[in-house]
From TrEMBL:
Protein name according to UniProt: Glycerophosphodiester phosphodiesterase
Pfam families: GDPD
Phylogenetic classification of the source organism: Bacteria, Bacillati, Actinomycetota, Actinomycetes, Mycobacteriales
Annotated InterPro entries: GP_PDE_dom, PLC-like_Pdiesterase_TIM-brl
Domain of life, source organism: Bacteria
Coiled coil: none
Source species of the chain: Corynebacterium godavarianum
Chain ranges of the GP-PDE domain: 6-243
Length: 246
């Protein structure tokens, strides 16, 4: 691919074909010729950083009996959540610890991981601090393999203090007025719809940009034409096909 093609980031793993934020989704994505993967992190009752988007398990997990699971992540222990199936009946998947995902990433030295800490969190700053501790414990607090993203400006500021050598992107709420700057972040992170409607959301020319969630070929081509640095998609294989030969 040419250098002006955006780095393809598999949103929540290969989310378009496999259950989101599961080991299966991440493994399948990491086997593709893409920039890397994106994940979401919440914290359990007993202080474990786990890879899950929602504050509850209701949407993404089933019980051992195949019923829809319920419960807030912050009110469940890791052992309790480990009993749930985040995959399919045919391919059951346990929730992943962030540390386990970093272990998996270490097997793919050319790939990258974008970590989003989910706020508001009942744990506040402790969530970001635990993520930083785990990243440092894996020796990934320097270099370019891990990036940090958040809608929360305070989280971005904490990342700058805790992990100053890592790139970060300030995610933008498309319902809010366009921010003048991205604060302590390396660059802006608008949705593709906001970026198309308000191209200034991509920031200054010398800033890298991260755009989410880009699932249509025409949106992918727009990102390429607009100089987007990184592009999150649920369909990384489609993105590869769209940019094939470029």
């Amino acid at each position: 691919m040419s250098s002006n093609v955006p780095g393809i980031v598999a949103h929540r793993g290969f989310n378009g074909c496999y259950p989101e934020n599961t080991r299966r989704a991440f493994e399948e994505a990491l086997e593709l010729d893409i920039y890397g993967i994106e994940c979401d992190v919440n914290m359990t009752k007993d202080g474990q950083a786990v890879v899950i988007h929602d504050p509850s398990v209701d949407r993404t997990a089933m019980t051992a009996d195949g019923e829809r699971a319920t419960g807030e992540v912050a009110e469940l222990t890791l052992e309790e959540i480990r009993q749930l199936n985040f995959g399919t009946p045919e391919d059951p998947q346990q929730i992943m610890l962030l540390s386990e995902l970093l272990d998996l990433l270490a097997q793919y030295p050319g790939k990258h991981l974008l970590i989003e800490t989910k706020h508001p969190s009942p744990f506040g700053a402790k969530l970001d601090e635990e993520v930083a501790r785990i990243v440092r414990a894996h020796g990934m607090d320097t270099g370019e393999q891990v990036h940090l993203i958040s809608f929360n400006p305070e989280a971005i500021e904490r990342f700058r203090e805790l992990l100053p050598e890592l790139r970060s992107f300030a995610l933008m709420d498309p319902t809010e007025p366009l921010p003048v700057d991205v604060g302590q972040a390396t660059g802006p992170g608008p949705s593709v719809r906001q970026a198309q409607a308000e191209p200034e959301a991509l920031g200054a020319a010398d800033q890298p940009s991260y755009v989410w969630t880009v699932n249509l070929p025409r949106e992918m081509q727009w990102c390429r034409a607009s100089g987007v640095d990184l592009m999150a998609t649920d369909l990384p294989q489609l993105a590869l096909e769209t940019f094939a030969g470029e």
